[in-house]
């Protein structure tokens, strides 16, 4: 089933979903963040159809999230490596993982993050980039940004 496009919507969330909103895409990015680079490794780990994996990888390369790096000439085979743009999805993946650990993992978290600096299991918490205070929905307000049109509605 083909989904509707958000390409005409002036919303950063909608534009992000245009690139990473297909359900296999974030799992591919998750595995890339874990160090997976080869087509066959993605295919085996995810159990994804090869044609679907090819489409998702092509989209991620097209949008600059992954780059293809040939490692074999005959036949040509590629490593798929995250770009800076792709690595920036780490916080998104971790936010989804933490939400899933809380609401969809009745037996506990399947994986945990261990902070290398102190050796303790950790969760990622949003903080203000200026003052370092904890940030949640109740501690921020929304205003028009430089990319909003003059008459763009703001979320309630």
From TrEMBL:
Q: Which residues are in the HTH hxlR-type domain?
A: 11-108
Q: Has UniProt tagged this entry with the keyword DNA-binding?
A: yes
Which InterPro entries does this chain map to? HTH_HxlR (IPR002577), WH-like_DNA-bd_sf (IPR036388), WH_DNA-bd_sf (IPR036390)
Keywords of the record, alphabetical order, are: DNA-binding, Transcription, Transcription regulation
Task: Offer an example of a GO molecular function term for this protein.
Answer: DNA binding
User: The organism sits in which domain of life?
Assistant: Bacteria
Q: What is the name listed in the Swiss-Prot or TrEMBL entry for this protein?
A: Transcriptional regulator
Q: Where does this protein come from, organism-wise?
A: Gordonia oryzae
